[in-house]
Amino acid sequence: MIRIVLLAVVTATSVGVAPASFGQAYYSPSGLQRIHNTLPERLGYPADAKLLIVHADDLGMAHSVNAATIKAFERGLVTSGSIMVPCPWLPEIAAYARSHPEADLGLHLTLTSEWSSYRWGPVLSKDRVASLLDKNSYFYLTESEAASHANTTEVEAEIRAQIDRARAFGIKPTHLDSHMGTLYQNKTLFETLLRVARDNKLPVMISKEWIASTNYLSSILNPNDIVIDKIITIGPGVKAEGWSKFYADAMKTIQPGVTEMVVHFAYDDEEMRAATIDHPDWGAAWRQRDLQFFTSDFFRRLLDENHIKLISWREIAKAQYPER
Amino acid sequence: MIRIVLLAVVTATSVGVAPASFGQAYYSPSGLQRIHNTLPERLGYPADAKLLIVHADDLGMAHSVNAATIKAFERGLVTSGSIMVPCPWLPEIAAYARSHPEADLGLHLTLTSEWSSYRWGPVLSKDRVASLLDKNSYFYLTESEAASHANTTEVEAEIRAQIDRARAFGIKPTHLDSHMGTLYQNKTLFETLLRVARDNKLPVMISKEWIASTNYLSSILNPNDIVIDKIITIGPGVKAEGWSKFYADAMKTIQPGVTEMVVHFAYDDEEMRAATIDHPDWGAAWRQRDLQFFTSDFFRRLLDENHIKLISWREIAKAQYPER
């Protein structure tokens, strides 16, 4: 799940607003030669290509999430996902990653445990990351609690350990992002994420709109960092009957450049209803609605009609770190 | 789940064999006066009462286990259960325990994580219990690996921490046992369990048959420790179509004294099938068969026809530690 309340994510209330301008210039590694005008060109597409990553969060969180997301991958209209390494169902999705090396799987770096009935803690030894844990030694329930308590050294050690564990399970991550946006909550946390990502030669999900909405992102990024144009995610303001319309409207407004749709899949089943009890936002029914939309013929037609091409984080990783 | 391969649990192959003799003498706290001839008398029943605890293992392991076991409790024919504190669904069953203080819930002390797709680790900081963890920092998959690697000091610290965490969640345990029988695997582990149990004034599940089948149990126990007569649990040798017959035959052979049936409930649903994948023994369908039997009118009739009275561990705890 991703909730980035501090940042200008497109939600129900803002879809339809024109996106921020794109057209960041890209330079050769020496910095001497301007080689691309647009991100699509850097990725090998025409400058005016409308490129979309449909990105499923929260893999590993529950069996229901794993099963639904794998179904969506197999349908072929969802290009990417990210894995929560500390969660109990990691081994199941890691087995999928090993048997599907073509799958575009990143890590949804996790410093929160947000469901009251069903919880998890850190990869590292609890004594080493005490600032990240609540009184029961689980991760905090909310991203704001996590961010306000977090010791940066402990955060860095824990997220490096999550990457190490993923690799020990045979996962070859293509990108990084942050569960519930915890690592985007302030400059120090984001710098930590970026340092770890660069050391691992992995791109980080970040959009130009976010840069524009904060006073710290632009000073941390450098010209080699790939910044996508727009991130779209549905919010609690959308009612069930408005689900398809939200996504259809969003797709009709997609501009040339790279857009990511952050989505959340699961079945509306007993496990998921119990895990998300008393929490309809990002709950079981919500996730099944996402699954239904992104496996539908309607979504396929919207892609075609709006001339939108699906891409993956693997392509971005190759462009950002061609030496990998 | 309980698997006690070293000990003489009644399984498909041994049901029908006459139970070991009962009739242990009980003494007053001063040790001067023989006050009861039999365990039923010590519990306040006639000497020839046939007393049965139907005990559901593995609470907290999965939502499916919690939901199925709560359903069985509500049906009224299952008297007791035990909770796996390190498991992700602990908070869900702890909420039930807080809202149902009459429920007879013990702790299924856990030092293994036996399902390959879905795993958990210790309550204590991993650095403090390194001998209990595999290369991925989960508990070992099997009770034999756990027992062979376990450092006794670390075992004691971890099981004390599990009791502490249970109490922090508002659970008031009535008894202790050991998931997959790990703490019954050798004398040192059992001594550790017994020391922790006595310090916490909690009875431990142990039967006279087990004492007879080992060379160490009798020397560790003292006259105040309550030892039940017989433990019955179904084994992999029973086919699905023989489920009811196994339990019916077992109930017809129950003798005066205290018998425990160790059972495992869950629904045969997606979560449980995924958790127990490639492992039909103690798997999803197995557990639903147990649920069906122990919530059936047939089981109720068998109780009546065989003059068997259901009791709980709370009664044993009160008899063993009247000062609690």
Main attributes?
homodimer, 324 residues, alpha/beta, 7-stranded parallel sheet, two-stranded antiparallel ribbon, 13 helices, 12% strand
Explain this structure to me?
2 copies of one chain form a homodimer. By secondary structure, chain A is α/β, with parallel strands linked by helices. In chain A, 36% of the residues lie in helices and 12% in strands. Chain A has 13 helices and 9 strands. The first copy, chain A, has helices at residues 39-42, 63-75, 90-99, 143-149, 152-168, 187-199, 208-213, 217-220, 243-252, 270-275, 284-294, 297-305, 313-320, and strands at residues 26-27, 34-36, 50-59, 80-83, 105-109, 176-178, 230-232, 257-263, 308-310. In chain A, the strands form 2 sheets. In chain A, strands 3, 4, 5, 6, 7, 8 and 9 form a 7-stranded parallel beta sheet that branches. A two-stranded antiparallel ribbon of chain A has the order 1-2. In chain A, helix 2 links the parallel strand 3 and strand 4. Residues 4-23 of chain A have low confidence and may be disordered. At the A-B interface, helix 2, helix 3 and helix 10 of A face helix 2, helix 3 and helix 10 of B.
